[in-house]
């Protein structure tokens, strides 16, 4: 689900990036990161240099650590985002409408500027079922109390810049609420009830209680028609959870000297139950047969689409619990907010893509809507399993060549295996070099480890070590592993690029482009080449509606299914940006993929390698300088 953005303060964004990324950064790289022109970067940088917040040289720009804290504080006071937030928060907390002239005076802005901000706010609140209405000079926020609370929560998550929302930020947002006392109460009651709360669970419960307490103190309470779930309950909830929720609400009422309505209490209990992570060691849990069957189908589907096998027992059980809770939340219209969504999408695209596939299948089979935040939680659950599976596939097959008089061979191979468990599979142990030619191995040999022998080997790469596994031995094996992996990856990447990205599928455009228009244009080209069938553009748009394929200034659009007649990719470099969606108007490079299912392994490798390269802003800046297909391919391979 696409979210309407609030206006960004690019100068503050530049300062934050330099704070979080020490070292020198070129204007070209920073333009990619911030999503503006190099000229704008230089203008913002000049202001920051003048205020001594950053330093500039021929190497680019870097943070001035001595001045950072004070400057950051000053910047935040003047941000457009902050102004918009204040407008919104006033809409929430004031019983009467807001006068445009009062707002202008309060924000130290002209009436025309305030009206522009209100226009942005008006578009922003629509996604929560809210409307801004005007009567003369007065503006009012109309909609249900529960939807207004969703809006408050969303603002706080956006303001957190995709980091954890913790106790301190909640305190700052609700000074009229005793957040510390409520936090202590949650901790104490959870321990008494043997309830496990991870960081996300705890902060989510604390935030919703703080919002409810703040709204109740100011005279706002939900009514029955606000919330469709009031007559329902959460299936599978234990007595522990219900008792915990009831006790916590009673404690909050006592701490805050308020009385929640019955509707408010029921709504909070549901949120608390939805927010509790189930762990077998702490909570008895049951997975319905339907959920178990569904999870097996999802695991099979991911394997079919991406060649990733998630059939790991512990993963399956924990994932089934999460899916069951997710479906319960979705059926009640409740979304678990995730402050890590954008970061996961950008840093782990292949894992996020797995989560998107799972979410799409859930939407199809279970008739629910899965939003980006929930997709990110799925990614968090499957992340370790996906990474472990991919790492296992990339492990090298090593053969040990060691004299047969070597003592304690079993201990030696076991120790070697432990040292390099993430990188190699130790195949067979042989005692004579001739066995390398005569013996049949279960898979192709990547290299040979010679122990206490220096026999020249022509057929395989090898290294020589002692039986003592010294630091020098460890370094020798580690260096060879790194060299082989990198060489193999480059060769495979180059072969895939040359095979699936022909010269004619490369465009550099100086125009400001539109995503859907570009999809139609490129799909038409691919249709004429008999790569895809008519209607491929609509398949690409459908995938974007599920969750954006853009992360920062890069996008890797593709359909949800591998329906291409044959596999091809298409590259578009647009220095002036592609208007991607309401949240991203500045994608500078598009790596479109049309995939036939016979090439799903190659697709996953291309997707993974390209994502790995473009996660670094400096690499994107280098790639954007490419003028020709050959230059682009060569640069891409060199950056791997």
What does this structure look like?
The chain has 640 residues and is of the alpha/beta class. It has six domains: 68 residues, Winged helix-like DNA-binding domain superfamily/Winged helix DNA-binding domain (Arc Repressor Mutant, subunit A, Orthogonal Bundle); 64 residues, Arc Repressor Mutant, subunit A (Orthogonal Bundle); 123 residues, PTS-regulatory domain, PRD; 105 residues, PRD domain (PTS-regulatory domain, PRD, Orthogonal Bundle); 100 residues, Rossmann fold; 139 residues, Mannitol-specific EII, Chain A. It is 55% helix and 12% strand. Strands 10, 11, 12, 13, 14 and 15 form a six-stranded mixed beta sheet that branches. It is globular, with a radius of gyration of 28 Å.
On the 0 to 100 scale, the average pLDDT is 83
CATH fold-level name of the largest domain: Mannitol-specific EII, Chain A
Estimate percent helicity: 55-70%
Return the CATH architecture of the largest domain: 3-Layer(aba) Sandwich
What structural class do you assign from the helix and strand content? Answer: alpha/beta
The main sheet comes to: 6 strands, mixed
Total helix count? 26
Under CATH at level 1, the class of the largest domain stands as Alpha Beta
Number of strands: 15
Poorly predicted residue ranges:
1-6, 70-81, 228-232, 280-284
**Distance linking N and C termini:** 32 Å
Radius of gyration of CA atoms, rounded to a whole number = 28 Å
Q: What is the CATH superfamily classification of the largest domain?
A: Mannitol-specific EII, Chain A
How many domains? The number is: 6
Shape: globular
Strand-residue fraction?
5-15%
